[in-house]
Amino acid sequence: MAERETNRSALVFGIFFIVAGVAFLLDRLEVWDLQARYLLPILLIVLGIAVLIGGRSPRSGQRS
Amino acid sequence: MSTVPPPPLPPPLPSTEHESFQAGRFVFGALVALFGVAWLLEATDVWHVPWKVVLPVTLIVLGVALLLSGRARRGQGGLVTLGIILTVVLAIGTVVDVPFEGGVGDRVERPRSYAELKSEYRLSIGKLTVDLSGLPTAASARTVAIRAQVGIGQLILIVPGSVAPEVHATAGVGSVEVFGKQDSGLDVKVDFVPHSLLPAPYSLDLSMGVGDIEVRRG
C-alpha cells in the first residue's frame, strides 16, 4: 500500500516545473508573451502554495 | 548442543524508493554532464547552443523526473532545489534581457555619416550614448532602422533637433523617457510615433534590462 502512495511535494513541484517550463519555452520561442509584471507575483503565489501542499505530505506518517 | 539462530537481517530498502532515489541522482548527474558538454561545444565553436531553449527544456525534464520519482520518500531535494533556482533564473531572464555581447564600460557612438552608422549597438553593462545629431538630415526618403540594447546601465539616444523619429523603448526594470514622456517601474514600454505623412527618418528600437533609457534632441 505504501508503494502506491506518492510523495505529494514531488508531485506538486513536478507539475509546477513542467507548466513553468512550457510557459517559459513558449515565451522564448515568441509564441506566447509572458507579462513580466504579472509573472513574478504569480510565481511567488504558486511556489508558496506548492510549499504549503508539499508540507502536508503524508511522509511523516509513513515512517511509523 | 543447541545452535544459535543467526541474527535477523535488516529489512531491505523498498525497491521503489531505492530506484526512485537512483533515478533522481541519475537525472541530476545527467543534466549537469549535458550542461558541461553543451558549454564545451559552445566554447570550441563546434555548436552554437540555443540557451534560450535549453533552460526551459531542462526545467520540463526536471518536472518529469520528479513525477517519475514521486514514490520516493527522499532523494528529490536536489531536483526541487535545482528546479526552483532554474525557475527564478528564467523568471528574471523574462524581465531582464541582458546581452552577453557588447562589453562593459562607458561608450559613446557618434556617427558623422550614414556609412559610419550601424544598425545595432550593444553594451552588456555600463553607459551607452548614441549621438545621431551629427548625421546629415534628409539624406534618404526611407526609414533607417537602428537598434540599441544595454543589459544593465544607461542608454542615451540623441537625435537631430529637426527630425521626428519613431521610437519603441522598453526596460525590464527602470525608467524610460522619450522626448519628455516618461514611465518607470517593471516591464516599462514607451512608444513615440510622429504625426507626419512622411515616413520617419529613423526607427529606433531601444531595450534595457535594468536601468534607464533617455531619448532627447541634440
Would you mind describing this structure in some detail?
The complex is a heterodimer of chains A (64) and B (218). Chain A has 64 residues and is mainly α. Chain A has one domain. In chain A, 72% of the residues lie in helices and 0% in strands. Chain A has 3 helices and no strands. In chain A, helix 1 runs antiparallel to helix 2. Chain B is elongated and about 105 Å long. Chain B folds into 2 domains: 81 residues, no CATH class; 114 residues, no CATH class. Chain B has a 6-stranded mixed sheet with strand order 1-2-3-6-4-5, with no helix packed on it. By secondary structure, chain B is α/β, with parallel strands linked by helices. Chain B starts with 14 loop residues before the first helix and ends with a strand. Helices cover 30% and strands 34% of the residues of chain B. The mean pLDDT of chain B is 81. In chain B, a hairpin with a 2-residue loop joins strand 4 and strand 5. Classes of the chains: A mainly alpha (64), B alpha/beta (218). The interface between A and B is medium-sized, with 33 and 37 residues.
